[in-house]
Amino acid sequence: MGRDSGSDGRPRFRRRDHSVAPWIRTRLRTAPGAAVALALLVMATACLAAAFPRAVERYEDAGLRQAVVDATAPRTSLQVSAPSPGNYVPQPERESALRPDSMRKAYERVLNTIERPLAVDPGQSTYGVRNVNNLEAAETWLPMPSGLPARLSLAAQSGVAEHSKVSAGRLPRADDTVSAATPEVEAAVTTETAERLDIKVGSVIHVPGVQRDPLAVRITGIVAPRDPEGTYWTTQPLLRTPSLIRPPTQGAEPETYWLGALLLPPDAAPVLLGTPGKPVRYWLLAPDPAALTAHDLARLGSAVASLESGPGLVKVRTSTDADTAVSTDLDEVLASYAELRSGVRPLVSVAAFGTGAVAVVVLLMAGRLTADRRRTELALLRARGASLRGLTRRLLTETAVVALPAGALGLAGALLLVPYGRAPYAVGAALAVTLLACAALPLRALAAHRVVGVHGAREDLASVRPSRRRTIAELTLLVLASAAVLALRSRGTSGTSDEALDSGASGDLGGSGDQLVAMAPVLIGVIAALLLVRLYPLPLRWLARPAGRLRGAIGHLSLARAGRTSVSTVLPLLALLTALTTAAFGGSVLAGVADARDRAAVLNLGADARVEAEGALPTALPERVRSAPGVREVTPLSIAYEAKPGAGVDSVPLAGVDPEGYARLAERTGLGAFPAGELKASPAGGPSKSGADGGSAKPGTEDSAESGGSGSAKAPLPALASSAVADRYGTRPFSLRLSDGSDVTVRITLVRDLTPALPGAYFLIVDRAGLGTVAARPTALLVTGDHVSAAALRKAVAAGTGANADATARADVRLRSEERARYVDSPLQSGAERVYAAAVAAGSGYAVLALLLALVRAAPERVALLARLRTMGLTRGQGRRLLVLEALPQALLAAAGGVLTGWAVVRLLAPGIDLTSIALATPGGTPPTGTAALHTDPASLFLPALTVLLLATSIAAGQAWWTGRRGSVRELRAGDSR
Questions:
Q1: What is the DSSP letter of 302?
Q2: How far apart, in Å, are the Cα atoms of 45 and each of 202, 353, 401, 409, 845?
Q3: Tens digits of per-residue pLDDT, 784-821?
């Protein structure tokens, strides 16, 4: 708008010419559907890309915190201890060092030495003074199970009032100044200590003194911990719960004594200097699990190491005492978690790269679809003088107006959907998606319209030949894929715990493996897609000649049109193959994890359920368990874990079984199947009793000599043994002494690596009919069934052992489903599985979207073809068959290629991938049962491929049906491409 002078001299405004509307507004009004579709695609992709790093960070942090909590406070707490000042220090200074003011100031100085990211929970941390050597109590009214006097630990710990509530009496206090010579102090005990040691309010307990009379400790109160499982009480569990100690002795009957703790007021700490307990000062620092983050794992390890033996320890000693020591197992907990994470991360990164590759292809396809739809418009603009730079700038601005708000909305959705994690990674992922969406259309137009021209050459697979640049690019990808596969097969996905601890950045999703290794399935899919595109025209040409001899033109015409497919089919084929490969790999991973957990549960239990007791089970219990709902068969076992071969001190677990039923169980579970007849005892076989059955063996026979002097003159029992036992004892008969005092001679006739009755590498299985009466009584039951109810089984066991209170108290009922659930121990495992499944599902969704985009791109041409053919007499049924047959070769190509590529990826990468970390991690870091290997899952290979086939043919049939319902006038208008 400008100014001009009128006839009267006053300025007037000129009206701007609006004959040419702004470019962006015109384009958005012309194609609002395309703009909305692009916005939805960018918003969904940005949301997923931004949510992924936050979801990974969330489950990794949760896994780290759970690992610290499960490791128990004695292992994870930082235990700072310093001896009391020596005797060379004046007594007033020694006593002053133990008083609350000195201890509190030292505690504050120690807290200041803790380096970030290690954080301390002040509410659960404490400090105090306790004796190292436990003190004998002189009172005979204290319980003495074996005649040994009870021993006590005196602790003057801060915070007792805040972490407990008074159950009886009052809290102890020190009214006067306490010294090492104070004759009597007050103390409190917890409810558990009072109950087990028969301590009451008002009780007086005397402990020895040094160069003074015994110290009298008067109990003024009984307290109940507010949080018995909190770090305050569990770091030193003796303060809360007394223990029954069994000292090492040589006698047959072990002796025991009670060990408890008396809680003194902090002001009474100097009195410990007058006892022989060697008092020590301590500061217990509990790490705050809520402040621990997985991306700081390397710094956490460094901070702990510094405190144990580094600059941090020097600072602690400067703040407390020159002889101060810091001990903790927190570094081992962090290393164990890092090792678990190093096995989980590479698997998640494979899914991330696969889904990301498919999403990138779909965004590029969206830009290419728009560029192809507007090819004539852009070519006309170039012919009328539009510069390449100006055209690219206009397209970039037009796309950015739609993509930038959509990307911002996607980012906001991700922040709301996953309200945890660091924002920079999410912002970066959403920004990358948005920039790619903005650049796809301009870059495609830049490549297609560098040369001004209205009419272009044909661009189908039959006419376009691969260029030299494309050949070089494909060879480069082939080299990269080969290098990634070789690296993964030779190195594997899991590194050592030290390497994993050093790579603590959460942005490195590959963990111990780099991005090239994680991209191996994607690179193999890319190579397969390019190879299939090169080979695609050959079978069509071979089929075209036989199809031309058939009656009707539908077959020949469909093959001819399939052979004239646009060269741009490489993008949708790449998307489909990458998605199918990722789905096959991901499904195989999830199936391998599930199978490994099922297998480990069966290895531990030997059946669907296991009922075991320390002693013999009631005779009627097997029948009662067999009648429980869902139970098909019950196999009794007579297990002796301490069977001793010959005169040695080593023991071998021995199980007596019924050969027929046990052979069926071994075959059903796949744990060392064997012929039942080879384990049956001969009628002359049997045990030699030296006490339990009262029988005696006949001496002087050959079997007796071979048995090593066991005294058995009967035929040895056939035994099934593990490889380790067979290697050690061979096939000669040898005797076994059982816990009931009886002897039995066995001969190893079968060797198996696994067996249902006994897990582990050492076992012997014999026919329990050859055992004595006592040894043959069942101690365990292996239960098999389709749907064994835990409640019903436990109810049956409780009812069947009701007459035997001891057996009821010790009976242990375990189900395979419960055992399997133990292996999903860490949020790191469950979170990784959920993210992996979500990534595979998202990749499948993008693959479907790629297929839809490919069909939408070809839709106008197909509609016009059907319209023209209908004028020549083509029926609606023939039109549907034509479109279905035209789409079928490409769909078959993608499906077959996806199956073959997925199978090849699993077979090539399986030797380098260990699923044990994600499948079989157990509480406390105990070694898992067995290993988990990657294997091909048929369902993951064929179901996605069949889905692609059905979807492609269904869309083609639906498109033909919809076209048949519409008129043909619009499609037959020459030059109208809308």
A1: H
A2: 72, 14, 17, 11, 11
A3: 888 887 888 888 887 777 644 444 446 788 888 887 77
